[in-house]
Amino acid sequence: MKLLILVELVLLCGLAQAQDSTVVATRISSAPDIDGRLEEQAWQTGKPISRFTQSDPVEFGHPTQQTEVIVLFDNDALYVGARMTDSAPDSIVARL
Questions:
Q1: CB contact at 8 A, 43 and 70
Q2: d(Cα 20, Cα 51) in Å, to the nearest integer?
Q3: Higher-confidence residue: 22 or 1?
């Protein structure tokens, strides 16, 4: 049940918009640290997904910002790491 919910969440977050619809999840032997950084060896072994399209302002257009997602799994969990760049990070507005 947990895995199904997480997979649905991943799809809702944009993996469904990837031009190449194949997502490869890489098996790892131990869990990575969940610290917001993707510098550990585990993340380096995963296959990055980066061929996304955007929905706004041009639906299915070339993205204006680069995004890279890596999916890993072990016997206990599915791990999703993402690098999402922004050319103007000072204009990001946090909302509750």
A1: yes
A2: 7
A3: 22
At 72, which helix (H) or strand (E)? strand 67-73
pTM: 0.70
Residue 3, Cβ density class (10 Å: 0-12 exposed, 13-18 middle, ≥19 buried) = exposed
**pLDDT tens, position by position, 16-52:** 444 456 788 999 999 999 998 999 999 999 999 988 8
- Pairwise pLDDT comparison (67 vs 14), residue with the higher score: 67
The Cα 32–Cα 72 span in angstroms is 9
How would you class 40 by CB atoms within 10 Å of its CB: exposed for 0-12, middle for 13-18, buried for 19 or more?
A: middle
